Amino acid sequence: MSQETPQYEVSMPRVLISSLSPGTGVSNVTLGLLVALRKLGYSSSAHKTDVSLVASIHHRRITGRFAHSLSPELLSPKQILHSFVRGTSGSEMAIVEGTSEQYDEDAAVAKNLGLPILLVIDARTLKQQKFIDRLQGVLNTENGGTSGPPAPVGVILNFVPDSETAESIKNYFAKQFPGVSYLGGVLESRQFAGKASVEINRNFSLLTRNQILRLGTLIERCIDLKAFLAIAKQAPLLRAPMHVVEGASRLFRVAVADDQAFHLTTQDNLDLLRRLGGELVSFSPLIDSRLPSNVDLVYLPGAQLEPYLTELSANTAIKERIKTFISEGGRIYAEGSATAYLCKRVHAKASAQYEMLGILDGTASLTEKTVETGSVNNYFSFTIEEENDFFAKGATGRGFYAEMWHYEIASQTIKSKVIGDEANQIECMRQAFGGQENCFITPAHLHWGSVPREALQFTPHKK
Hints:
By secondary structure, the chain is α/β, with parallel strands linked by helices. The chain has helices at about 25-40, 55-65, 75-90, 105-115, 130-140, 165-175, 195-200, 210-220, 225-230, 265-275, 310-315, 315-325, 340, 425-430; strands spanning about 5-10, 15-20, 45-50, 70, 95, 115-120, 155-160, 180-185, 240, 250-255, 260-265, 280-285, 295-300, 300-305, 330-335, 345, 355, 360-365, 380-385, 395-400, 405-410, 420, 440, 445. Helices cover about 30% and strands about 25% of the residues. The strands form 6 sheets. The protein has a 7-stranded parallel β-sheet, sandwiched between helices. A 5-stranded parallel β-sheet has the order 12-10-13-15-23, sandwiched between helices. The two termini are about 45 Å apart.
């Protein structure tokens, strides 16, 4: 008699926040809810149904937990389930932020994970008949069943012009959609001014503490949190194999670049590193003069390099330490714009040049758009071409390309480790994998959750 696979059960309250049109404020509502829940004492986990490296950073800052991507472009339904279960392990509440204009994809993720759906609606679109028709079609969907998508069970109105209109909209939903909970409306006059983060920080991927707290206050004042919690508690029991959440004890140390510049990564990768036995230790290429002690691997995530090129170039101490680490056999994994940091020099606007590490013999030039938002269409499949210190030969997975540096790198410094699919012939993705034997450098982002776990070889380096 075969022994059943031990199961891990997920029973915490959870929801998916979605929308039917762009610009409805799903991100701000999600951030506000995370702040409000933290004030109520909940330890929440946050997730995203697409790849938004910036949104994930905001989620992590509020929750203190890795924010996982649940993108169907990168992961199969089974991989999405496993990523979600890993991300929620130990939390008391889970919020999944949906993707504008991709409601059908959101609904598929919600069905897979047993997530009640809350719809964020721009009150101004209620004047558009085309939108009303779509809204009625979605809200009147028969909920449940074995094949159909789940219907939203609640709505949050955004950009409501005044209190009188808010009351009118509330009555409209009570009459037209009696089975849908109306959780409240955010008045337009109280909206969060997101542009301020660019002016204050030079870097829109960093929100100030006051901006984050203001979002929470906005939600507390405008949204019925008791009704929200009641909906979240409707989520059914979810199960996954126990091995999904299991992790090894500490086997190796990883120095992870994490500062104002370096922080844009698929956070599932960091979580998987930790579960493989990695102890994650942060350092800053901007201000630190040395690497953390006794590390086996340096992880350089994607970055907002442009605002900090002067500081990065001037910090010769950390650059020398990283080069010494590599020359002595230490491993380095670099992705996205970190590829530019590893080039000999960077060309920025106004013909300015900045000296960088020189691990790759070549230059990186700044193009018109260099923001690694992760909101991209350049998804691709990959196959590991040769055995290396990071992935097993023949392993397959998915990735995306989310930055716009142009690279000119001498061919002798490149040793290809990956074959990309023919449908996405991205020049940098094809040529700039590799570097030295103990380096894995790519201007793309590989989602390790799409790679079979047994093919991840981030074990202590044998010197």
